[in-house]
Amino acid sequence: MDQQVGKQSLRFTKAPFILESASMGGKKEGEGPIGHQIDVVGEDDRFGCDKWEEAESTLQKEALTLAMGKAGVKPEQIRYLYAGDLLGQTIATSFGLLDFEIPLFGVYGACSTAGESLGLASMAVAAGYADLAAVVTSSHFASAEKQFRFPLEYANQRPLCSTWTVTGSGAFLLCNEDFLRKREKKPQGRGVRITGITTGKIVDYGVRDSMNMGAAMAPAAADCIYSHLKDFQRDPSYYDKIITGDLGAVGQEILIELLRQRNVDISGNHTDCGLEIFDNEEQGTGSGGSGCGCSAVTLSAHFLPKLRSGELKRILFVPTGALLSKISFNEGQNVPGIAHAVVIESEG
Amino acid sequence: MDQQVGKQSLRFTKAPFILESASMGGKKEGEGPIGHQIDVVGEDDRFGCDKWEEAESTLQKEALTLAMGKAGVKPEQIRYLYAGDLLGQTIATSFGLLDFEIPLFGVYGACSTAGESLGLASMAVAAGYADLAAVVTSSHFASAEKQFRFPLEYANQRPLCSTWTVTGSGAFLLCNEDFLRKREKKPQGRGVRITGITTGKIVDYGVRDSMNMGAAMAPAAADCIYSHLKDFQRDPSYYDKIITGDLGAVGQEILIELLRQRNVDISGNHTDCGLEIFDNEEQGTGSGGSGCGCSAVTLSAHFLPKLRSGELKRILFVPTGALLSKISFNEGQNVPGIAHAVVIESEG
């Protein structure tokens, strides 16, 4: 019964399974260190569309279709869909997921959306509100640059601290134990479950540089990870990996230092999806990858297989978001951050 | 145990209470038919701010502060906050709710956000994930016109079918029975509970006119209400009122006709928050009020008191959203709709 843990965490007594997942990536993502693990990599970043926003919608549609195909489930079996993206009014989601006709909870948590959505979907499955639920998030380099910074044609120079928005989408199917046991087709490898979550607060350290998102998000990541460890009374070493979403190299350094100031050392087991998905030196991606797609693709393509194989037993997945818009940025507002932590463990 | 009802609905066995709520409105809202019921009405629509977006953030901050004040609760007692607005990257929410330091689930459902957020918060409280949770949504006429249509200075003419974005915010505190019983301060009047929800799907009838949102949203409202009645095997007469969010006069007519074609007659007990909040003829508000604030303010100021007094026993509250952005509109995309239904009942 004791589901509420500490001040802002939940422990699921009926922990949902990640039944299946799928990832889509763009050309650059395909050329990166985990490119060979991404399910489908596009030849260009248009994915057969005329507009960048439509291309991003296509990424979401294909990622969910692929996850359903792998799992052998149909849209009508999915009770609720939790999804979001970075674009104004989350249009990549609205137009990408329209055709599935699945009841939809639209989510906005900037680049933390994968963490927020996995959290909400886990809550629903663990509570018995859904036997099967889906999570989809995406980002696209070109639609994000257009939305937040400059038109691509302007070819602006990028500071080294800037991150590179990942073109990609990840989709996840979450189910309860009953649903899994009843299926003829079992997922390969070990069962992987979401056993708890820590929902983050907005944290504002006064960063105003939209070209340095790592610095904007690191304080929120530190706050969420610190709260998580405190709520669960765990040491960082409980986890094989603590994996933030898209802090990049600059944000990673700040995160580790902020936690060290609070006597928590994650330097030994921290990594960041933005550092896994690109080789910054080889690929010219500045501080690392970013976007709602960054953490979702890296979790699906790179970390879930390691959990299925048993190479990893327990991870803390912490997607990080920078809360800004073109308007708030132009009006001189700060860029506050938010992060949401998800505990993912492999069975047996 | 049987919480899942039909294809897309939930019945809460431990139905959460609406502990308290509060509403903020602009000048025009204050002059409308329910103006005297809104908790705080601004003298102008700036609420002491220089920018429209900041004014909207202030509306959210004040609405939540007011609801907490009425209930005598502190931010640290609120376990989770579910909130959203219409602006790109939901900045009214990010900057309005930052200071409360409450773990936040950011939500985007266009003008259906109040329904989606109340649904998610109810799910959390009913499942035992939170003893007390909060919901906040807002909209602002000036920030929305700037975001979706034309600068106000342009003074464009508006067709009669267009709706008028409500300047306002509503905040709701949801709690479980234990939390309510333990309090010394009881809410006045009868207990009001959220006993079920029906989560909507995106519905696209091909409407492309961003000046006729009622027509864009009516098909989604019809689909959600039809599914709700089917899932719960209820007749429309089960409800004293079926209350959509912001269809306005044009959308109302379409909704009633669409349901009539499916042999469901809601003409006797349907109303729309957009028709309650403004007197279209007197106030020149076209087809009626709209926005995330419209349904939230009208529920808090007008309908909840009627449920507390027993004048209404059961309502179906169905906020409606039009899924568009400046970009999707300019790129010639349709305006699909979504709607989320919440069953609200008074005790005894």
From TrEMBL, chains A, B:
This is Stage V sporulation protein AD. NCBIfam families: PRK08304.1 (NF006160). GO terms for molecular function: acyltransferase activity. It holds the Pfam family SpoVAD. It comes from Candidatus Eubacterium avistercoris. InterPro entries: SpoVAD, SpoVAD_sf, Thiolase-like.
